[in-house]
Design a protein that fits this description.
By secondary structure, the chain is of the alpha+beta class. The chain contains 5 helices and 5 strands; from the N terminus they run H-E-H-E-E-H-E-E-H-H.
Length: about 160
């Protein structure tokens, strides 16, 4: 038996691609939150090319509001969005009842995140190369302060005697 499309299926659907620095900033979670607020159906996922792609269905005006909000709040969250491409899908698509973020190639995600972490650790290591010099300077400073304290104690003792 073939069921007729309901009003949600009759709404417009789009393939959407967001490019720029959009990975590792919680972007899919933000997209899911905004889409659910606007009562859109669809899903979003990280692609191996570094973009976030999604299928999104709803009223055209609502989808445009959704994309404006994604751009605005994405930047606030730390994303650097270069472009948002939107292409209408004319075929009927079976979608989940609520907008979802998909977990795609978790190994690639983990590998990319580890690479980012290693880069950060290397920067920290580079930043800490001056620690021996800093430690020596601080030790010298502490020694000087001890000498000053001894002199001050002697001065205070002499003042107390008077």
């Amino acid at each position: 038996m073939i069921k007729s499309q309901n009003s949600k299926n009759a709404q417009k659907c789009y393939n959407i691609m967001v490019t720029g620095k959009v990975l590792d900033v919680g972007f899919r979670t933000l997209i899911e939150e905004i889409a659910r607020f606007h009562d859109l159906r669809g899903y979003a996922f990280n692609d191996l090319d570094g973009s976030v792609k999604m299928v999104c269905c709803g009223d055209d005006a609502v989808i445009n509001e959704f994309l404006d909000e994604v751009r605005f709040r994405g930047v606030q969250k730390g994303a650097a969005i270069e472009d948002i491409e939107k292409e209408e899908i004319t075929q009927r698509i079976f979608l989940p009842q609520r907008f979802l973020r998909l977990y795609t190639d978790e190994l690639a995600d983990i590998s990319r995140k580890l690479d980012v972490g290693i880069g950060i650790l290397k920067e920290i290591k580079g930043d800490t190369s001056a620690l021996p010099e800093i430690k020596e300077t601080l030790s010298s400073f502490v020694s000087e302060q001890r000498e000053h304290n001894k002199r001050l104690e002697k001065i205070l003792e002499k003042l107390a005697e008077k």
